What does this fold into?
Amino acid sequence: MRVTFDFLAVLAQWPMLLKGVAWTLGLTVISAVIGVAVGIACAWVRSEGPAWLKAIVGTYVELIRNTPFIVQLFFIFFGLPAAGLRLSPEVASIIAMVVNLGAYATEIIRAGIEATPRGQVEAALSLALTRSQIFIRVVLPPALRKVWPALVSQIIIVMLGSAVCGQISTEELSYAANLIQSRNFRAFEAFIVATGIYLLLSVGVRRLLNWLGPRFLFGR
Amino acid sequence: MIEFTVWDIFRNLLLAARWTVVLSLIAFVGGGLVGLALLVVRLSPATWAHRWVAGYVQLFQGTPLLMQLFLAYFGIALFGINTSPWVAAAVALTLYTSAFLAEIWRGCVTAIPKGQWEAAQSLALNFGEQLQHVILPQATRIAIPPTVGFLVQVIKGTALASVIGFVELTKAGTMITNATFKPFVVYSCVALLYFALCFPISLYAKTLERRFRVKH
It folds into this structure.
C-alpha cells in the first residue's frame, strides 16, 4: 500500500504553530524562574530550616516526585474548583509546572548545597556575615554552578512535560498540533512537525541556559 | 442514580491500577531488551553506528512522551494496521524507556576503568566475550540503583497513555470523575495510588544507592 504525506497542509498553518511555540516557551520561562526560586527556598529549608518545616518540604518533594505530572495538573485544574478554587487553564498549567519543577529543583539544589565545603561557611561566619548573607553570597552561587547542568535538564523535562497542558486546553504547541489535525485530518504529519519543533526547542533552550547560567546567575 | 462511596471510587481505581502495572512492566522489560541492544551497538567498534544510537537517544529524550504516543498511535495506523491504544502505548513506552536505559547504562559502562577493557583484550577475548565476562558483570552492579530509580519514571510515564485512550489509573480517574462529579476525591485517590506504587520503589533505589556507596 502507498502512504502519502502532506506536510505542507500542516506547515500552511504556521501562525497556529508559532502561537503554540510562544505559549510553550512562555509557560517554560515563567515556571522555570518561579520553580527554581521555589527550589532554592525549599533547599534552604531542608538544609537549615526548623524541623517541622523540613518535614513539610520533605513530604511535598516526595509527593510530587512520586506522582505523574498529568495527575498533578488534573488535580489542580479539575480537583481544586471542587474545593472552591477556580483557575483558568493557563494559570493551572503554570501552577502545576511550578509545583512540579520546584520539587525536583529542591533535590537538585540541595545536593549542590551539601557539596559545599564546611570550611567556607566557617570562614564566612568568622567574617561576621549573617546566616542569610552566608546562604545567598557564599553557599548558593557555587552550589548552583555545580548543579546547573542537572537543573537545565530538569527545566527541559518540564518544558517537554508541558505538552500535557494542551489536555486542559492551554493553547501550547501540542494543543496547536491537535487543532491542526482536527481541521485537516493530517494527524501524523501534524505531530511529526510538532515533535520536530519540540526537539529544536529542547536543543535551543539547553544551549541558551548553559550560556546564560554562568554569565548572569552565579558569575564565573 | 447510583451513589458512589469513596470506597467504590477507590476499589474501581485499584482495579484500573492493574493495567498501569502491566503496562509499566511491558515497557520496562521491552525497553530493557531494546536498551541492551542499543548499548551493545554503542559500545561496539563500529563507530558509524554510535552516531545513530546517540541520535536515537537524543530524539526520545528531546521530545515529549505525549508526542511519541500520538505518533505511535497515528503512525502505526498509517501503515494500515488496525492499532489499539494497547499496542501504541506499549510500542511508544518501550522505545522511550529503551532510549533512557541505554543512556543510563552507557554511563555505567563508561565508569568501568579503561584498564579492564585492555586487560580483557590482552587475554584475546573478542568483543562479545569482553562484554559478557568482564565489562557487563561489573557495570551491572553500578547500574542497578539508577535502573530501579528509572522504573518510577516509567510508571509515571504510563499515565500519559490515558490520553490516547488506554484505560489505566489516570483514565479510570477521568472516567469516574465524569460519573461521580467528585474530581477532588477521585484525583486525590489517583495520586495516592501512584504514590503507593512509586514511593517504595524510590526508597528501594535510594537504599541500593547508599549500600553501593558504602561498599566503595
Q: What stands out?
A: The interface with chain A takes residues 58-59, 62-68, 70-71, 74-75, 78-80, 152, 155-157, 159-160, 162-163, 170, 173-174, 177, 182-184, 186-188, 190-191, 194-195, 198-199, 202 of chain B (CB under 8 Å). Chain B has a mean pLDDT of 92. Residues 6-43 of chain B form the longest helix (38 residues).
